[in-house]
Design goal:
Blueprint (H helix, E strand, L loop, with lengths): L13 H8 L14 H4 L1 H7 L4 E3 L2 E3 L7 H12 L6 H7 L4 H12 L16 H10 L11 H4 L18 H13 L9 H8 L4 H10 L31
Antiparallel strand pairs: 1-2
Helix pairs in contact: 1-5, 4-5, 4-6, 7-11, 9-10, 9-11
Length: 241
């Protein structure tokens, strides 16, 4: 299964990005502190407002995702639950408070989504629709929308949206959970779910999700799911001043 992530092609940006992100560590001695927009300009350049398709991979969208989710991913990279050479190095020496500040900045940025992909052929589309909207009770797989929201745009505070993502990227992330190269804080519910997907299920749900048009309101649902089908781990947020 193809894995989409940062590649050595982007490694040259690490020193520049790390320098920008580390500015707060010495900010107290400076007469003027750069704005957050300036400090994360390199992040924006790599991820783009809609995610960036590269010749050999995909850099995912981070604009508008819940701050809790973005913060969790930054800490996961810091703790090597997720592995990407560029990201692991960039966040290695940043405080959790600053990681959360970065997460909050990008959560507040709302930009248009790219057009949806073409609908997959049947019966692949039907299986993808079933997994996304109903799940598979016999296999112990909950519906995607039971956690990611009815509009599939995510749910505050920690659940990301699934609309606007390429099929290959969704497949790659599910595959990474299946083979153990992507982890989350325990209990890692997505690793559990991914392990139960069989045959062409990964391709089916990824193709169906990628073909869904973005709703008029693309913001994450404001209220948490009342009765989520599974318990998912989350990194404790840093105390705010």
């Amino acid at each position: 299964m193809t894995r989409y992530a940062y590649t050595p092609r982007t490694a040259g940006y690490v020193a520049i990005i790390a320098l920008v992100l580390l500015l707060p560590l010495g900010a107290a001695a400076e007469p003027a502190r750069p704005s957050m927009k300036d400090r994360v300009a390199a992040c924006s350049a790599c991820h783009g407002p809609q995610g960036i398709e590269l010749e050999d991979g995909y850099v995912p969208r981070i604009h508008g995702k819940p701050a809790g989710y973005l913060y969790n991913q930054l800490v996961n990279y810091q703790d090597y639950r997720r592995r990407n050479t560029s990201m692991n190095h960039m966040v290695a020496h940043l405080s959790h408070a600053y990681l959360f500040e970065i997460a909050q900045y990008f959560a507040d940025q709302h930009t248009p989504y790219p057009p949806a992909a073409a609908a997959p052929p049947e019966p692949l589309a039907e299986r993808g629709r079933q997994l996304a909207r109903k799940g598979d009770k016999a296999a112990g797989i909950p519906a995607c929308d039971a956690c990611h929201g009815e509009r599939l745009t995510g749910v505050q505070p920690n659940t990301p949206g699934l609309v606007g993502l390429p099929r290959q990227y969704i497949m790659a992330q599910l595959g990474a959970w299946q083979v153990g190269t992507r982890h989350a804080a325990a209990p890692d519910c997505m690793a559990d779910i991914a392990s139960r997907l069989k045959g062409r299920d990964v391709e089916a749900v990824a193709a169906w999700l990628a073909a869904q048009p973005t709703p008029a309101d693309t913001r994450p649902a404001a209220e948490p799911i009342d009765a989520p089908p599974m318990t998912c781990g989350s990194v404790p947020q840093p105390a705010t001043p």
